[in-house]
């Protein structure tokens, strides 16, 4: 009998406690999600590359969004008073082909100048931040959640105020004006799922 078998055979020996999995969402992020879930008109906007879809081409060469993120966006878009959008540097046509998101999720491409509603350039939108403001006005949002990864999202975070929430996805070593952070795209997907669950029960 080996030493391990002998220890296992001793009655009353306590089992090794299971290690708790660290929560990818901080307490501050969860509190902000709870507040967002209770706004009357919520706009959820997400950058495609880095927030919805991983940017690691070696691990995810097809650049598809995480299934759990797609599922959460679909659930959010089906809730009353909730509008979801993906804002990207990619053209709308590429976004539609890659993301395979339901029609309820708005697509804004070409750095925020191309909207899927009529696939045309909005003259008032000259970037992602301006496109977000156009969407905010169209849906009369009382609060906005914007998640993005990379330095290109910083101007969008600067446009957020009041009840809005900006979440930077990715390396915590990179400086950001976003009020909140999550480590990676799986954590971003979990944030969306938690938001959907809380808003559904509100």
From TrEMBL:
<dbReference type="InterPro" id="IPR003337">
    <property type="entry name" value="Trehalose_PPase"/>
</dbReference>
<protein>
    <submittedName>
        <fullName>Trehalose-phosphatase</fullName>
    </submittedName>
</protein>
<dbReference type="Pfam" id="PF02358">
    <property type="entry name" value="Trehalose_PPase"/>
</dbReference>
<dbReference type="InterPro" id="IPR036412">
    <property type="entry name" value="HAD-like_sf"/>
</dbReference>
<dbReference type="InterPro" id="IPR023214">
    <property type="entry name" value="HAD_sf"/>
</dbReference>
<dbReference type="GO" id="GO:0005992">
    <property type="term" value="P:trehalose biosynthetic process"/>
</dbReference>
<feature type="region of interest" description="Disordered">
    <location>
        <begin position="1"/>
        <end position="23"/>
    </location>
</feature>
